[in-house]
């Protein structure tokens, strides 16, 4: 009973933080002609409510795709339609065709914020609560501490409530899939992850680990017996889920192909803004976009992503345990973020979710990465007027996570799983790796804080107008590359040795 009381307090605090961030300005407020991502979500509600379903993804006189055209899978469109139906009931002006473009009012802002919070309360937050209570080890106090830190992660809060998106829906569905697989409900997990994919196509970052884990488990059970039966059930579940989500678009092949073209716009180029991935950082030294034609860039990106994700996937396929599955989710999403095509700065949230799953196992490394992931989106936060929420949530997360999870106290070589480094670099003299990691953490946090202050206070030289965004993205990229290498080494190490470790599958 006491545990659930603490859980309720954590959820309430999480809601308060989210609502506090939402009271600030939002993406594109008062900035015509596009008005930012807030207007994108509102415009999708306008389109889905007023136009027939057959026109949602097509360029027509009533649906200008150059003005925030729908570019997410059907579940996002259905969600927009539901929100629009409620909005129409409250105030028809909010979704009036054409006339509502760029609509801004305190009442509408309150409504839009409420839709994000309700979605989180229905999908994302319950999944986080159940995961922390049932799939993490330790005392009830430690589980609740993990839950609180999970809900306090600044990146997702600032993007969904400040920049304004619904990442909590797709990530919530994905987390329900992880939860189901951890409890041995493989068919339910497949359905939940299929819903995540049908809400946002970027969930492909997590697709390979789900596929390899389930296939590896089926092979382990035997493809001539129980394993085959499980594989068939999973395949049927995935196909039926996708068919139901796409059903209104399947009557016309051209309709379905247009949706696919909209959600995979390969014509945009290798990257757009200053993203903390390999291509944007490498472009400082080698002008890839000038040297290679766009088609070659696409092939290069595909090859590098495949090579980066392959070791982790093969490891999971041959050892389909839940521990390996969580590590593969981290490594796959980081590989996609670092090397794939047309990555946005917000895509780091797709790596942050699986990293959060390891808060209880590797607290210091996880806290370090999550701070870096929030820092990597600093230019976006400043553009949206979210400096104060960024500072407050980042400091709160850093303090509470280190204090509640005793991250610095639990940072021995064994707890950080650094033993494999001695085997890899056996020719180097014996060093206290745990001490080195702690000092790197201190220096890293200081560097991120210093760059954040410099970005706000200093004016860049005229000949280097993008100096601070480039420094932020490059610094974050170094952090992400180091995290990617670290978690790959951990995945190829032995399983975690904990006396109270649960049996996984």
TrEMBL record:
GO molecular function: dolichyl pyrophosphate Man9GlcNAc2 alpha-1,3-glucosyltransferase activity
Keywords: Endoplasmic reticulum, Glycosyltransferase, Membrane, Signal, Transferase, Transmembrane, Transmembrane helix
Principal location: endoplasmic reticulum
InterPro entries, per the entry: Glyco_trans_ALG6/ALG8 (IPR004856)
Localization per record: Endoplasmic reticulum membrane
Pathway field: Protein modification; protein glycosylation
Keyword Glycosyltransferase: yes
UniProt KW Signal keyword: yes
Bilayer topology: Multi-pass membrane protein
EC code: 2.4.1.-
Transmembrane annotation, as ranges: 110-132, 144-161, 173-197, 229-249, 323-341, 348-370, 390-408, 441-461, 467-489
GO cellular component terms, A-Z: endoplasmic reticulum membrane
Signal peptide: 1-22
Classification via Pfam families: Alg6_Alg8 (PF03155)
Enzyme class: transferase
Catalytic activity: an alpha-D-Man-(1->2)-alpha-D-Man-(1->2)-alpha-D-Man-(1->3)-[alpha-D-Man-(1->2)-alpha-D-Man-(1->3)-[alpha-D-Man-(1->2)-alpha-D-Man-(1->6)]-alpha-D-Man-(1->6)]-beta-D-Man-(1->4)-beta-D-GlcNAc-(1->4)-alpha-D-GlcNAc-diphospho-di-trans,poly-cis-dolichol + a di-trans,poly-cis-dolichyl beta-D-glucosyl phosphate = an alpha-D-Glc-(1->3)-alpha-D-Man-(1->2)-alpha-D-Man-(1->2)-alpha-D-Man-(1->3)-[alpha-D-Man-(1->2)-alpha-D-Man-(1->3)-[alpha-D-Man-(1->2)-alpha-D-Man-(1->6)]-alpha-D-Man-(1->6)]-beta-D-Man-(1->4)-beta-D-GlcNAc-(1->4)-alpha-D-GlcNAc-diphospho-di-trans,poly-cis-dolichol + a di-trans,poly-cis-dolichyl phosphate + H(+)
Family, as annotated: Belongs to the ALG6/ALG8 glucosyltransferase family.
Function description: Dolichyl pyrophosphate Man9GlcNAc2 alpha-1,3-glucosyltransferase that operates in the biosynthetic pathway of dolichol-linked oligosaccharides, the glycan precursors employed in protein asparagine (N)-glycosylation. The assembly of dolichol-linked oligosaccharides begins on the cytosolic side of the endoplasmic reticulum membrane and finishes in its lumen. The sequential addition of sugars to dolichol pyrophosphate produces dolichol-linked oligosaccharides containing fourteen sugars, including two GlcNAcs, nine mannoses and three glucoses.
Name listed for the protein in its UniProt record: Alpha-1,3-glucosyltransferase
